[in-house]
Amino acid sequence: MITISETVENLVRSSPFLEEALARGLINLSALARDLKPDIEKELMKKATEGAIVMALKRFSAKLRQAQNKQVYWFTSPPDLMVRSNLIEITISNSGIMFQKLRKLLEQIRFNENYFLTITQGIYETTIIVSKNLEDKLKKIFAGEKIISKFENLSSITIQLPEGSTRIPGIYSFILKALAWEGINLIEVVSTCNEFTMILESENIDRAFSILKRLFTAV
After folding, report:
1. Among residues 102, 72, 112, 8, which one has the least CA distance to residue 218?
2. Which residues of the chain have a pLDDT value below 70?
3. How many angstroms separate the Cα of 109 from the Cα of each of 104, 138, 196?
4. Which residues pair with 130 in a beta bridge?
5. Of 8, 97, 111, 191, most Cβ neighbours within 10 A?
6. pTM of the full predicted structure?
């Protein structure tokens, strides 16, 4: 049978901002307990006391803070933050000759040292993020293909992740929640084994960089 603690966790986790605020200790637990009480009782199909809900919230908030501290612990020093500007992104519907065109793009830019390029191929579409100075090549190579979306005036922030980051639960959400909490919208995210790159509108790049610097200040 589901418990009050399990119900509280499920309700809080369904709202990322509520979860973050609880982890930061920004919420009056008694007020939150009163707000959640009707939903908890509906889920349990029985009455629940406000005191029991407050105790469940206290235990869960401690659990959240402990998990967050573990994520920070993995960064033994502030990570490198690398910024690139003047980027564009296009998403193209996959076709029978997509692979050949991607290979042609790579062949044409392999001797160009000053470029940024990431390619993400999905089941039905492929997204290409590239330096603005390669836009003409991109248009020529993919002429006739169905363009699903296009974004201009983009920049990127790449974070050098600690070794073994692929085995750290929640390391991406730890970073992304900091930006979401401040209302920073991301156009795309791309990762490799030890790098995490966020693509966003250039007008937000300075604020996003400052938020991330603050995030790791205590490391």
Report:
1. 72
2. 67-74, 218-219
3. 9, 10, 23
4. 88, 117
5. 8
6. 0.73
Q: Report yes or no: 135 and 152 within 8 Å, Cβ to Cβ.
A: no
Distances (CA, A) of 81 to 74, 135, 153, 161, 219: 16, 25, 20, 10, 14
Going by C-alpha positions, the residue among 19, 105, 64, 74 that lies closest to residue 196 is: 74
Other CB atoms closer than 10 Å to residue 52's CB: what's the count? Answer: 17
Rounded to whole angstroms, the Cα distance separating 130 from 87 reads 6
> What are the tens digits of pLDDT across the range 3-12?
888 898 888 8
Tell me which of 3.30.2130.10, 3.40.50.2000, 3.40.50.1820, 3.40.50.300 is the CATH number of domain 81-215: 3.30.2130.10
Domain map of the chain by residue range? 4-68, 81-215
* SS3 call for 121: strand
How far is it, in rounded angstroms, from Cα 149 to Cα 53? 46
